[in-house]
Design a protein that fits this description.
The chain folds into three domains: 2-346, ABC transporter transmembrane region fold; 358-442 and 522-604, P-loop containing nucleotide triphosphate hydrolases (Rossmann fold, 3-Layer(aba) Sandwich), CATH 3.40.50; 450-521, 3-Layer(aba) Sandwich (Rossmann fold), CATH 3.40.50.300. It contains 22 helices and ten strands. It has helices at residues 2-8, 15-37, 39-46, 63-81, 83-110, 113-133, 137-141, 144-186, 188-208, 212-235, 237-242, 246-298, 305-346, 406-412, 436-440, 457-461, 470-479, 483-487, 506-520, 536-550, 585-591, 594-603, and strands at 367-376, 381-391, 395-399, 421-426, 429-430, 443-447, 524-528, 554-558, 570-575, 578-583. The strands form two sheets. Strands 6-7-8-3-9-10 form a six-stranded mixed β-sheet, sandwiched between helices. It has a four-stranded antiparallel β-sheet with strand order 2-1-4-5, with helices on one face. A hairpin with a 2-residue loop joins strand 9 (570-575) and strand 10. Helix 2 runs parallel beside helix 8 and helix 19 (506-520) runs parallel beside helix 20.
Length: 604
Amino acid sequence: MKSISKILRYLIPYKTYAIISVILTVLSSIAGIVTFTMVIPFLNVLFGTTAAPTEAVEFAFNYKDGTAWFNYWLAQLIDVNGPQFALLIVIVIVLIASFLKNIFFYLSKATMIPIRVGVVKDIRNSIYNKLLRLHLGYYSEEKKGDIISRMSQDVQEIEMSIIRSLELIFKNPIQIIVYLSAMIVISYKLTLFVFIALPVSGFIIGRIGRSLKQTSFKGQRRMGVIISVVEETLGGLRIIKAFNAEDKMLGRFRDTNSYYSHILSKIFRRQELASPTSEFLGTIVMCLVLYFGASVIFKGGSLSASELISYLVIFSQVINPAKAISGAYYTVQKGLASSERIDKILFAEVTIKDPKKPILLDGFNSKIEFKNVSFKYDKEYVLRNVNLTIEKGKTVALVGQSGSGKSTMADLLPRFYDVQEGEILIDGVNIKDITLNNLRSMMGNVNQDPILFNDSFANNIKFGNENASMEEVEVAAKIANAHEFIKEGKNGYYTNIGDRGSKLSGGQRQRVSIARAILQNPPIMILDEATSALDTESEKLVQDAIIKLMKSRTSLVIAHRLSTIMHSDEICVVHQGEIVERGTHDELIALNGHYKKLYTMQVR
């Protein structure tokens, strides 16, 4: 029950619908009892197995008096109108009861629809919200495909588990209780067999399905691997084809898919075993009930043949919800495995948080300071005791070999990661004391790999400033040297640029991202190797756009091509996580150190 509560917690916002569904289930079951028990008094009176009452009987809500009242009423009906008319009336009552039973049953199912739809919506919203708030380091440890699998397949499993959980805990047990109550009224001795047999059946079914949860967990995890392979294939098709690696990737996918199919077969075998097992056990119990009931009749007991028939009919209705419970048990076990996978996202720690008592900055007025900053992703320090001051309006460039820690410094400033030692200050305020929204609203980013979305030029440029007018969008595009090629598009600024800007060249993608940064108009710019992947012509256009972007702004620039940062106010050489040299281009050349070596290698 504690495990099932993990799934039922999603029901809390929809508890009203759940309660209504349960009530309708009760009404449906009661109408079903009326349908199946109406035949008893009719057969008794019609065939004379029970003497018809000669005096009027007052109606009462108990089996004995209620049956006597109905027998008297039915006997009068037969005397006045004949047995055929009485049979017609009984049939009409049975049909009305059956109609009500099925109407209530349908309504109970219909009230589950808002739960099914709403729960899936809420879980996906929660997962997506959490994915946006988790720090970037989380995604270096998780596969994208597995995360997508949790948001799609696992959420669907929980949807089914919630429906099955309601049936397992409320709806089916209610039906069983109502039917068992009617069976007790008819014959408590026969019902003792049922009370003994049903728990035994449940125990056997539980033993069969014990390992399903663990198997389902493996299957869902393997589905995440399949999606990861597909995602990597779509992203790397150019390389796969260039290296003739189609067969290699196909073999890798087939192996993963075969293993998943093997696990899925085990799951389905256990699931499909539930229904025939429960049906066979139910048939055994029914045969025992039939034998014992017939023995009572043969010995002249209180049970009549018509009551035995009705009893068996009602008991047959117990078998269906009992079978449903066994099937629900399997589905719930799969849902529990999915719930645990989803909980790994929903309960993952958000390490980058807003302060409890934030300090609000109304803008950038003075300087940025790195004070004794040290940082590590895992065990090894990437930055060691870094000290750096960037005055307002100045451009500071970071250069050095790959892996020296330049990009890490840029990521620490907007708090994509938090420093473990030291502090970063803006206008004398520790960035951990500023809300993330306030901090990042002062910064613009232009990266080596432009991150664009499958949308129009206009919407990509307005991404950080949705309220911008088209005139402002065009001005930003002109400053970024992007206006001309945008206007040449089929629909101008409303032309779709494809997945991640796949319809554009590298230089065009970069200029669109620069236009986006210009429109945001932040006082601080972070440029991470914005021209390193471009050809010479594109580099000149992008570099011109960057110069316009950096004008009158404070900039932190990371560059491999030293020609792009020669005019920076200060250049810092980062080596093995430390700033080993700093100064202007001419000063660093005069030092004849790391920078001179890097510069000489590039100008040869």
